[in-house]
Amino acid sequence: MKYLFSMVLLIIVCACSKKEVKKEPFPFIEVKVIEVKENEWTVYEGKIITQDNVLTAVELSLKENTVGVESDYKLKGVALTETEAVFNMSHGKFNVTYGLADNAMGIEIKARNTGKLMTSTIITHSKNDRKRKMPGAFEPQNIYFITNGGEQLILSNDDFSPIAQDNRYTLYKRSNLFTAEGYLTIAEGNPEFFERNTSENWKVARLGVYTEIDSTYKKLSTMAYEGIYLKALAYSVADTSDAGDPIRKLVVKRILEMKVSH
Question: Which pTM was predicted?
Answer without folding.
Answer: 0.77
